[in-house]
Amino acid sequence: MAEKVPQTLANHGRLDPPFHLFILPVFAISFIASIVHVFFHPRWGSAWLIVVSFALLVLAFKSRLYALRNQDRIIRLEERLRLATLLSPPLRGRIGELTEAQLIGLRFASDAELPALCEKALANKLSRADIKKEIQNWRPDYWRV
Questions:
Q1: For a tag site, which of 1, 63, 96, 140 has the least CB within 10 Å?
Q2: What is the dihedral of CA 49, 55, 57, 60, to 10 degrees?
Q3: Separation between Cα atoms, residue 48 and residue 67, nearest integer Å
Q4: What is the secondary structure of 64-117 as a DSSP string?
């Protein structure tokens, strides 16, 4: 089996080939083709084809967003549990102040740097992107879709 490339801030975004390179292009091209079709053959059936193809395009996006949103909820729970075990008692009491975006950003921080980064995120109200930029020892997440 091939070795996984070490994950970093620069390469942690993922491309899902079946979704990004097949499903989205097929639905997008179908939507455009239905618009062209109604231009050359203006009928109610052709117009309805635009509605159906647009609905399929929206369905593809919404399905993807539902999966990502569910993963965000799971990450939020995992990170709260992780923080509860790694933070000192005074800082542990402030876990609830972290935003969802901050929790998602903190998931990439190593256990050693997590407490300091968490404190910095709370004090400076760091965004998800700012938190990721601060991470020195990247903890990879290869499971994200």
A1: 1
A2: -140
A3: 29
A4: HHHHHHHHHHHHHHHHHHHHHHHS-HHHHTTGGGS-HHHHHHHTTB-TTTHHHH
Comparing 42 with 14, the larger pLDDT belongs to 42
| Rounded Cα distance, 80 and 20, in Å | 31
If you search the block for the tokens 């760091």, which residue do you land on?
A: 126
Residue of 81, 86, 139 lying closest to 115 (CA atoms): 86
> What is the helix, strand, coil percentage profile of the chain, to 5?
70, 0, 30
pLDDT of residue 1: 45
- How far CA 1 is from CA of 4, 5, 7, 132, in Å, comes to 9, 12, 17, 29
Q: What sign for the dihedral angle of Cα 82, 86, 92, 98?
A: negative
